[in-house]
Amino acid sequence: MYQNSFHIAIIPDGNRRWARKKGLAPEKGHKIAMETVEKIYQTALKMKIPYVTFWLASVDNLTKRSKREVDFLIKVIAQEIKRLIEDGRIKENKVKIRVLGRFQKIFPKKAVKLIEKLIKKTEKHNFFFLTILLAYNGTDEMLEAVKKIIKTAKNTTLQITEDVIRSFLWTRDLPPVDLIIRTGCEGDPHNSAGFMMWQTTYSQYYFTKTLFPDFTPKEFKKAVNNFLKRERRLGK
Description:
The chain has ten helices and six strands; from the N terminus they run βααβαααβααβααββα. By secondary structure, the protein is an alpha/beta fold. The protein has one domain: Decaprenyl diphosphate synthase-like (Undecaprenyl pyrophosphate synthetase, 3-Layer(aba) Sandwich). The two termini are 23 Å apart.
C-alpha cells in the first residue's frame, strides 16, 4: 500500500484554542493533545505507515509563553517519553525513535536523560520510524547546518551539493515528507518556521479546522486516504 519510505509529518495545532473554547487552562489542552498523539501513532502503526513525525514543540512554544505553561508542557512531554520507554508495542513493532531539536539546551536535565534513554533503547530498531521534534524550528535547523558547513569548509575541500547540505541537517536520516497534516486551521492554512524545509519540498498538505485534541484516528485515516487518491506531479 505504501512505499518503504512513506512519510507523514503532523503539526498538531490548536491545543490552547481547544482549552480556551472549553473554559479551561491551556495546560489541559496540552495534556489531552499528548493522549491524542498516542492514539494517532498507534493508528499509524496499525496502518503500517513506516515514517511518522510529530512536531510537539517549537522553540517559540518553549521560550515565548508563560513559565507555568512551558513547565507543564515539558512535564507532559516527559510523561509521554516515559510512556514510550515502557510501551511494549514499541519493541514489538521495532520502532526506532528519534528526538530532534534543541531540547538538550531548553529541557531540564531529568527530562533530557529520559529522552536520551528512549533514543538509546530504540536505536537498533529498524522497521518503523517515529520522529519527535522538540524545541525545533526549520529555520534554526538550516541556520545550524550552514554554520557547520562553513566551519567544515575552512578545514577541508568541500564541494557544496544537495547531498552535502542534507548531511548537515538534523533531519538528514529522514526521507522526504509525502504528507503534512496540520490541524487547527481556521481559514489560515499555512506552514510555520520553515518546518522541515528540506524534506517538504514536494510535500502534499492536509489542512483541517479540527483542533488537535479533537483530531481522531478516523480523521487521520481520512487524511491518508485523501492523499492516496491525489495525483503527485513532483514538479513534472
